[in-house]
Design a protein that fits this description.
Strand order of the largest sheet: 3-2-1-4-5-6-7-8
Oligomer: single chain
Shape: elongated
CATH architecture of the largest domain: 3-Layer(aba) Sandwich
Number of helices: 12
Helix content: 55-70%
Order of helices and strands: EHEHEHEHEHEEHEHHHHHH
CATH class of the largest domain: Alpha Beta
Strand content: 5-15%
Radius of gyration: 22 Å
Length: about 270
């Protein structure tokens, strides 16, 4: 009999995970959400079983995936706590909420796992940090969770102490990339390209650059050097970026996001 994965909340991220898992056939899926119409549409698309309430979804599940906003998480956990037991496993995707808090709010009734996704999961290209630090986790529970998230994106098993860094780099990372893309698009417009052409050029630039970095045997520094000819256009642009301390600003920005993640977890 296939394990049952229950979702408390099927918003953007929850539905993205469900849509990724549904075709695998590895698990049965059940979920609940306040938006009954969207839940019904998701169920029709994926075969998700509709639960009447969070308590119903958690009671039917072997793995309970919490896809609610951090500010609503405590209430959700306290409501489903009576349905939990040692044979179940809680999985939270809420940023900044520690294992200690998750365990306390759920009454310490079952092992807890933290997962940190990022928004490219919405198009099947997500990255997932998975924390398996809870000593109550069984080997088969760990193996299944890594298998499931690895099937729908790139999975990074890591200790909870590294979650704030992952959140700052990967969780917030799509915003940094979009910010950089916006600047490049505006540069194209400034230089006389239409906004539509500039947008297409930048999207293809990022798509090709990521593919090159992924498939090349060279480090990204060497790939950058390949474009940087002596006394050419690229070195002129890079020199300006270095004079403007852009590299340092990026590093400091990610560190500040890490620090904010730590604050939210306290």
């Amino acid at each position: 009999m296939a394990p049952v994965v229950g979702f408390i909340g099927t918003g953007n991220m929850g539905s993205a995970i469900i849509r990724g898992l549904a075709p695998l056939g590895e698990v049965d899926l059940v979920g609940c959400d306040l938006d009954a119409a969207k839940l019904a549409a998701l169920a029709a698309d994926t075969g998700l079983a509709v639960a009447e309430s969070p308590e119903d979804a958690a009671g039917r599940a072997d793995y309970v995936v919490l896809c609610v906003k951090p500010q609503h998480l405590r209430q959700a956990l306290e409501s489903i706590s009576p349905t939990l037991g040692g044979e179940k496993c809680l999985v939270s995707i809420a940023a900044g909420i520690t294992l200690e808090k998750l365990d306390a709010w759920s009454g310490g009734r079952c092992p807890v796992v933290r997962v940190m996704p990022n928004t490219p999961a919405l198009v099947g290209a997500g990255s997932y940090a998975v924390c398996l630090d809870d000593p109550r986790l069984l080997g088969d529970q760990k193996a299944l969770l890594v298998k499931l998230f690895s099937a729908i994106g790139k999975t990074f098993p890591m200790s909870e102490k590294d979650f704030d860094a992952f959140t700052a780099l990967s969780g917030s990372g799509p915003a940094y990339v979009m910010y950089f893309m916006e600047a490049l698009i505006e540069a194209g417009v400034y230089l006389g390209l239409s906004r539509a052409v500039s947008t297409d050029v930048v999207i293809e630039l990022l798509r090709g650059s990521v593919k090159l970095a992924d498939e090349s045997d060279h480090h990204v520094s060497l790939l950058r050097e390949m474009v940087t000819s002596p006394a050419g256009t690229t070195i002129e642009a890079l020199l300006h970026l270095d004079r403007s301390a852009v590299r340092a600003a990026i590093i400091e920005a990610v560190a500040m996001a890490r620090d904010r993640s730590r604050e939210l977890g306290r």
